[in-house]
């Protein structure tokens, strides 16, 4: 409540300046100008330094890419073998569905102009939810979902494009999984979603959310695992991390990585606590000793005055603490049990308290939530991601703060952290 009142007062003091500015943000973030002319640079306005959040002192936000419009960009960052950072997100270019990207050669302080990496193979299908990995041989893979769910016989797939020349050019590589459904109603939330790469027991693995049931029954996504068979040059189903059909759970959007202590951790957004908490989506953790057989651990965020905490992403700090970032409509104006990206207006983080074993943690083992972007009331910041590079923790998010759609990041030095 204190944060809400502070933000409300801040917005009242600044409303005059905002009204005076009659320039409207672009309604379409996909113009040719956005592809060739977008300027990405560090913000220059003065701002008091952050006092720190459990040892994390965040620098001023940096604009990674200004893509225009008011919509979200589902972006992912990755550090390439040559030291460059890439930030990619699905978009459109002159009406064509495509993947766009910017690059940084100075650890994310400044970024290149936006360019199109590749166009969707089938322009009748969506192109969204990107994830990036570079193999030991230098090949770069980008996974994404490609769906056409509004047809009488809906189609959904997880596809991959590849680059053999360090992201200069891309070509269709493979289809991880595809499915066809019949008897569907328009807009039904079924299909394949949100791929995430991870090496599990030395094998290249792709995790993704999947919902198989038709509209007459509940559509409950579970989480699937496919492994790359190098000899056969194809993806092979390995195991379900959670088969939620017939349950009240709803596990989607897996983010998987290996812990420094061994075993694997996964964050998902779930409806596991809906009946008891009244929340529609919450970040939830699963653990696996072998990367194949998974068990639920705990939720880490329960909003007090709102309905949701979705799109979670986790990372391990050098001292062993776990940070989870997520989007929520907590502390936002005009929201009431709505989990859409236009309503989840704040990117927040929580972390495990010192000395907590995340594989055995409970809901009370997490810190209070914190907004590292200081999102203004009436603006959004959602679809977060994180990475650690050259002793800095990076948190990035899609935002329309201050004006128009953009991808922003904040950094915090973690080089002094030790277990």
CATH architecture call: 6 Propeller
Structural class by SSE content? mainly beta
Strand order of the largest sheet: 1-23-22-21
User: Based on CA inertia axes, which overall geometry fits?
Assistant: globular
Largest sheet: 4 strands, antiparallel
What's the end-to-end separation, in Å? 35 Å
* Helix fraction by DSSP (H/I, runs of at least 4): under 10%
Radius of gyration: 21 Å
SS elements, strand count: 23
Question: What is the CATH class designation?
Answer: Mainly Beta
Low-pLDDT ranges: 1-50, 213-221, 334-339
The CATH topology turns out to be Neuraminidase
Present the secondary structure layout.
Layout: H1 2-20, H2 32-36, E1 62-66, E2 76-79, E3 85-93, E4 96-104, E5 115-119, E6 128-134, E7 140-148, E8 155-163, E9 171-180, E10 191-200, E11 203-211, E12 222-229, E13 234-242, E14 252-258, E15 264-270, H3 274-277, E16 282-288, E17 295-299, E18 309-316, E19 322-328, E20 346-351, E21 381-389, E22 392-399, E23 406-413
Antiparallel strand pairs: 1-23, 2-3, 3-4, 4-5, 6-7, 7-8, 8-9, 10-11, 11-12, 12-13, 14-15, 15-16, 16-17, 18-19, 19-20, 21-22, 22-23
Short recap of the structure:
It is built from three helices and 23 strands. The chain is mainly beta.
Give an overview of the whole structure:
This protein is mostly beta strands. The protein has a single domain, classed as Neuraminidase (6 Propeller), CATH 2.120.10. It is built from three helices and 23 strands. The chain has helices at residues 2-20, 32-36, 274-277, and strands at residues 62-66, 76-79, 85-93, 96-104, 115-119, 128-134, 140-148, 155-163, 171-180, 191-200, 203-211, 222-229, 234-242, 252-258, 264-270, 282-288, 295-299, 309-316, 322-328, 346-351, 381-389, 392-399, 406-413. Strands 1-23-22-21 form a four-stranded antiparallel beta sheet, with no helix packed on it. Strands 2-3-4-5 form a four-stranded antiparallel beta sheet. It has a four-stranded antiparallel beta sheet with strand order 6-7-8-9, with no helix packed on it. The longest helix has 19 residues, at 2-20. Mean pLDDT is 79; it is low at 1-50, 213-221 and 334-339.
